[in-house]
C-alpha cells in the first residue's frame, strides 16, 4: 500500500475510511508496542512483541514503521561484545508499530549503531551524534531513518 499524506483519507485493514490522525488514535488504543533488532543471520530485522510478559519474535522484515520511538542499548551486552569480539543481541529500537507512514514526512536522519565505535545509537549524517528518541522511524530496505529526533542529554 502506498503511503498517504497527512490530510488524505485512506482505507486500511477496514472498510471505514479514516484520516492519518484517526489511524494514529486507533493504533494508540491497541497494544502495538514492538521492539526491533537487526538479525545478522537472516539479514532482516526481527520484530518482537510481548507475549505472556516476555518478548517473542513475531516476524522478520526489512520494512517497518514506528511511532514514539526509543533507542535502547544494554551496556552489559555491549561490554560482552567488546570483550568477546562476538556479536549478540543487545540493542533495540522500541516503539509503536504503524501500518504506514505519510509520504509528506521527510526523514532527515539516518540512524546507525556500532558497539565498537559508540555506546549508543547515533545519527550518522550528524557526525555520529547520540540519539535517544524519535517521533517516527521508518526502517526500509535495511535503512533506519528517523524524524523529529531527540539527542541524548537534550530536554524533552
Describe the protein in words.
Residues 1-17 have low confidence and may be disordered. The longest helix has 10 residues, at 75-84. Strands 1, 2, 3, 4, 5, 6, 7, 8 and 9 form a nine-stranded antiparallel sheet that branches. The protein has one domain. It has 156 residues and is mainly beta. A hairpin with a 2-residue loop joins strand 2 (44-51) and strand 3. It has helices spanning 20-28, 75-84, and strands at 33-39, 44-51, 54-61, 63-73, 91-98, 109-112, 122-123, 129-140, 143-151. The protein contains two helices and nine strands.
Instruction: Name the shape in a single word.
Output: globular
Q: What's the helical proportion of residues?
A: 10-25%
Number of strands: 9
Separation of the first and last Cα atoms:
33 Å
Strand content: 35-45%
* Number of helices, counting only DSSP H or I runs of 4 residues or more: 2
Radius of gyration: 16 Å
Structural class call reads mainly beta
Largest sheet: 9 strands, antiparallel
Mean pLDDT: 80
Residue runs with pLDDT of under 50 for 5 or more positions: 1-17
